[in-house]
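Illustration: Bacteriophage phiJL001 Gp84 C-terminal domain-containing protein.
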Amino acid sequence: MTTPLQNHLATGATHLCTCWAVTRSNGVTLGFTDHDLPLSFDGIDFTPESGLSARALASSTGLSVDNTEAIGVLSADAITESDINAGRYDGAVVQTWLVQWDDPSARKLRFYGTIGEITRARGGFQAELRGLTEALNQPQGRSYFKTCSAVLGDARCGVDLSDPACMAEAVAGDTDGQVFALADMAPFNDRWFEQGQLEVLTGAAQGLRGVIKSDALAGGSRQITLWDQIKAPIVAGDQIRLIAGCNKRADTCREKFSNFINFQGFPDIPGNDWLVSVPRSDGANAGGSLFR
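Result:
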């Protein structure tokens, strides 16, 4: 059975355009088209002359990244430099359709993937588009380490991050987006949130996250320092959420989270010192194991 788009292509006189939809991690979807009039379908409005275009799609049977890029102009009403700097487009989902512009129901999805590396120059941007097969290029299988291979709160870990012992909400004070001075938030111990995450819940930076570098108690207050600055304005009064950190060690899993039954590491695996151990003249060489 042929599709409406195939029937249209068979006529030889085509009315075609390209439409792109970019869906950010916070659920905001932006639509763009190279047609000269607006189009709408699937609940998305595709705006023309928005400064976004894409190179010709090129895919292969291998697992390499699809050879395509989105090229656009930074503008106040579409994709802004501040949003790119804040990381709102990192990992955003991209869909591309070939559309009959006088009948948008005749269309074909040609690309589905995510945004990779973004570079900016001369008032514009260039974004790498990564196809679905990109995930298959990542290392697969399990590695054997003393430390845990799970991510805190994921299905293998099983820790409930909504538990009051794992999460706390606070009100931000004056901050540069990297260092936060907060109330003590008892009963959380010193360094409780170290290696965890800070998420902004309200304000201009809503939805943005940062990884916590250090968490120190001093003088009745708690100072949270992130590895990287959140590049969006955070003002006094904005709500933030702190998620506990995990250093992947067995004793932390057992004592901090009471979750040792789900520990995904191998704390008793012999180390390199055992692999290179040899008999010694001053040791007990009775033919037994060298590993004690």
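Reading the tokens back as a structure: The chain is about 10% helix and 30% strand.
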